[in-house]
Design a protein that fits this description.
Layout (H helix, E strand, L loop, with lengths): L41 H16 L26 H6 L1 E3 L3 E8 L6 E6 L5 E5 L17 E7 L9 E9 L4 E5 L2 E5 L4 E9 L2 E11 L13 E5 L5 E4 L1 E8 L10 E5 L4 E10 L5 E2 L5 E5 L2 E5 L17 H4 L1 E2 L36 E5 L13 E5 L4 E10 L2 E6 L7 E3 L6 E6 L5 E5 L13 H9 L10 E7 L15 H4 L8 H14 L5 H10 L3 H13 L5 H7 L5 H11 L6 H13 L2 H13 L3 H11 L3 H6 L4 H8 L5 H11 L13 H15 L5 H4 L16 H4 L2 H10 E3 L2 E3 L2 E3 L5 E2 L9 H11 L12 H10 L7 E2 H7 L2
Parallel strand pairs: 28-32
Antiparallel strand pairs: 1-24, 2-27, 3-4, 4-5, 5-6, 7-8, 8-9, 9-10, 11-12, 12-13, 13-15, 14-15, 16-17, 17-18, 18-19, 20-21, 21-22, 22-23, 22-24, 25-26, 26-27, 28-31, 29-30
Length: about 800
């Protein structure tokens, strides 16, 4: 454990076994084939020497659960710990870009999350105890910390380290707030008041803000993020919850609940759409970008809080999780260290990972150092492939698509197996800062296969001293802009930075202005919101006004004269916050008559909030009934049809009537009792806890665009034997559920080899999912699982729908 120090780079490194980053790698694998037979070499001998030991030690091994090798051993290089010079030499960077080291151990250890403050200092979360070894011994020790790095001589590299808070448990999220920081550990969200005396930073006191932030659940599937978004709320990945500090005397919006207060502000919590896995980003228009491990960039193409409005209507999964770009990747080394690397389908012809399996830490580039053609590209880390992928994002009529920025080449990749990029950030100097966790193991023991366990032993990947690095990605032929930091500026001096050409400056200026709550800047903000030639400045000014509690109809009306659809979308979303009046309803009608299809989506939401039904009819007759129509009609379908049903087509009326007649509170009669009911309760805890089923299938069992649902699934409710076999050995490849085809690149892992999950646990999970939500089926007993375990003990890889159906009728 690194000792606390405020001195420059002289902190002693303490050797400790390697930590895993299972936050970012859950399930991988495809179809298995026999291992290639390679000549025995030094690596072979090492494996033979450790094999017996590893078979005994591996928590994933059980009788009959043996996995074969695919990558020839003579192709696999060793994986020594590289020093910084060697690490830099291991990279292949696209010719237009270059990579520079800005912080290295002992200045930083095991970083997973960073944030730049207004002074350009880096605040970092060091996660120092995650999976100390393959058995997770010592994982729950309170030994992580929050540190601040400073570039004291302004040469572009950090040279000073201050430990601010220590003895933490697996910290995972960090954000700034008035008078301090918000941060989250393994279970809770905290506020720490911070004192800054001429650059010497100290923690004054820490209080719990939300004890439920990350409570329960598997370590791989917990909330993270705390992204300060355009709408002044903090959002999270792997979560359907958002947060916001308000002035002590402010009225909270409908749906928000106060959960904490201190002398400076009170804190609200509200629900939003569920999104993502590890990492969260936004673009200039407040749209969020997230991922699942096999889906590198997903978005919903709209400012949040739309799909969660109407309990009668479920937005389609492909609207909530729109794929932006492709999944193919191009490592520059063989990649045998995959949890399901025994499957030949994981690799290309050179035994390199061919598709994302650990996508994480998405970023939309919004800086001013890269040439303009690269503005708005997406960057995604792929630690299993030791690379960072770049995606060109295109937009048409408000919908986003993407393609690889470079042809069969990544923006950067490494031959170092321990290079583990996990997050990336827009920096004050217009470049990108990349976080390298730098570790050998990236799989938690819950799903660690015997194959990967042997790979770990083969290359001594547990061996570690605490290491970690931060890199700068910059455009090679472009100058780095001179940086003006914002920490010493007054509120009025911050306003022009809302129009800065670097997204970091715009976001930081908005955040500081909202935190200061200085109303003296209102005239300048109103002017910028209504007349600035830069539409990004207009949008920032409008939302900064909202952050100061000022949303005015006359300002929105003037701003809406800008025909830019992005400005209009923000105007209409803000119009939802106004008090309903006849004047407002008349204006909404005028807008409905003149708006375009992209802006109409947001306009319909404002119309629904203020029940301007004739305006909604105008939009329906122009663009039809769509997802946003149902969001606008939340709880008001009957009232709308009574007022306007005669003015829309029969087909559109029938669509609304169909949704109107859905009872979201309808519950199927449950027949479980006694031990079966107790099993159901235990199964629910496991589903949402250490088994982490909800991480992919969702708390409501509905899955996602790429993950099949459990609710209303014949694979769950019909054959107990099929379900038991899936739980034991997993499932991969295409599958049809309730008439809909799914072909996810992800693999559901089997739990047969996990000695932390008993037969009774699996029976409890099965009983729960067979009777949760709309499902209703017979309970499953531990003896059912035991019987199936014996019958399928020779099954060494996940089933496919075809092989499963052939074996179990």
């Amino acid at each position: 454990m690194p000792k606390k120090t405020n001195r420059k780079i002289n902190t002693k490194i303490v050797n400790q076994s390697l930590i895993s980053l299972s936050l970012i790698l859950a399930f991988t694998g495809c179809a298995n084939q026999a291992a290639d037979n390679a000549p025995e070499n030094a690596v072979d001998k090492q494996v033979k020497a450790t094999q017996t030991k590893s078979e005994k030690a591996n928590p994933g091994d059980r009788e009959g659960h043996v996995m074969t090798e695919v990558v020839p051993r003579d192709m696999i290089p060793q994986a020594p710990i590289l020093d910084s010079e060697q690490a830099l030499a291991s990279f292949k960077v696209h010719p237009e870009f270059e990579l520079e080291l800005i912080a290295d151990s002992p200045l930083i250890y095991d970083p997973v999350v960073i944030q730049y403050d207004a002074a350009g200092r880096i605040w970092a979360l060091e996660m120092t105890t995650f999976m100390p070894d393959a058995q997770a011994n010592g994982e729950m020790q309170h030994e992580s910390q929050i540190v601040v790095l400073t570039d004291t001589n302004q040469d572009g590299k950090m040279d000073d380290r201050q430990v601010i808070i220590e003895k933490l448990l697996l910290p995972r999220a960090l954000a700034f707030v008035q008078e301090g920081i918000l941060w989250a550990d393994h279970e809770s969200l905290y506020f720490t008041q911070i004192a800054d005396h001429n650059g010497k930073i100290s923690a004054v006191k820490t209080e719990v803000v939300d004890a439920e932030y990350a409570k329960g659940g598997n370590l791989e599937h917990k909330p993270n993020g705390l992204l300060f978004s355009l709408d002044n709320w903090y959002y999270n990945a792997k979560s359907s919850v958002k947060y916001r500090p308000y002035p002590l005397d402010a009225k909270l919006p409908e749906g928000a609940t106060e959960i904490y207060r201190n002398p400076f502000w009170k804190f609200a919590k509200a629900h939003t759409e569920y999104r993502g896995q590890w990492g969260l980003a936004q673009d200039d228009y407040g749209r969020h970008y997230f991922n699942h491990n096999s889906s590198p960039i997903l978005t919903s193409s709209f400012i949040p809080d739309v799909a969660n409005r109407n309990p009668r209507y479920k937005f389609p999964k492909d609207v909530l999780n729109q794929n932006v770009g492709t999944t193919d990747v191009y490592p520059i080394r063989v990649t045998p260290g995959l949890n399901r690397g025994y499957n030949r389908g994981m690799y290309d012809d050179e035994f390199r990972l061919k598709a994302h399996t650990a996508a994480c830490g998405p970023l939309i580039y919004r800086g001013n150092q890269f040439p303009g053609e690269y503005y708005g590209i997406g960057l995604v880390s792929e630690p299993a492939g030791n690379l960072v992928k770049a995606t060109r994002i295109e937009e048409q009529n408000g919908l986003l698509t993407g393609e690889n920025l470079f042809d069969k080449q990544e923006i950067l990749a490494s031959t170092d197996e321990r290079f583990r990029p996990v997050n990336a950030y827009n920096a004050p100097d217009g470049t990108v800062t990349l976080v390298d966790f730098y570790h050998g193991i990236i799989q938690h023991r819950t799903f660690l296969t015997s194959y990967l366990h042997d790979q770990i032993k083969m290359r001594d990947l547990e061996r570690s001293k605490h290491v970690g690095r931060l890199y700068r990605i910059k455009h090679k032929s472009s100058a780095i802009p001179k940086v003006q930091y914002l920490d010493k500026l007054s509120a009025i001096e911050l306003v022009p930075f809302l129009a800065h050409d670097n997204g970091w400056h715009r976001d930081t200026a908005q955040h500081l202005l909202v935190m200061k709550q200085d109303k003296s800047v209102l005239p300048e903000l109103r002017k910028m919101a209504t007349s600035h030639p830069n539409h990004l400045a207009q949008i920032k000014a409008l939302w900064t006004l909202e952050g100061l509690g000022v949303v005015e109809l006359n300002i929105l009306q003037t701003a809406a004269l800008n025909k830019n659809a992005k400005v209009q979308r923000s105007v209409y979303r803000l119009a939802e916050q106004l008090n309903t009046s006849a004047t407002l309803q008349d204006w909404l009608q005028q807008q409905a008559e003149n708006t375009n299809a992209e802006a109409a989506q947001a306009l319909s939401l404002a119309i629904g909030t203020h029940k301007a039904w004739p305006a909604l009819t105008t939009l329906i007759n122009k663009y039809g009934v769509n997802h946003f129509t149902f969001a606008a009609l939340a709880h008001a379908e009957k009232a709308y049809l009574a007022a306007e049903g005669k003015n829309i087509s029969t087909a559109n009326k029938e669509k609304i009537t169909l949704v109107m007649n859905i009872d979201p509170n309808k519950k199927h009669k449950k027949t479980l009792s006694g031990e079966s009911l107790l099993s159901f309760g235990r199964g629910k805890n496991l589903y949402e806890g250490k088994a982490a089923c909800f991480g992919c299938h969702g708390a409501n069992g509905e899955g996602s665009a790429i993950v099949p649902p459990l609710n209303n699934s014949e694979w769950v409710t019909k054959s107990k034997d099929k379900l038991a076999a899936i739980l034991l050995h997993g499932l991969s490849g295409p599958i049809e559920v309730n008439g809909q085809a799914y072909n996810s690149p992800m693999v559901m892992p089997g739990l047969a080899g996990n000695n932390q999950i008993s037969d009774q646990d699996l029976a409890d999970i099965a009983t729960y999912i067979r009777n949760a939500w709309d499902n209703q089926a017979q309970a499953v007993k531990a003896d059912d699982i035991k019987k199936m375990r014996a019958e399928t003990k020779t099954q060494t890889i996940p089933y496919t729908a075809e092989t499963l159906s052939a074996k179990f009728k």
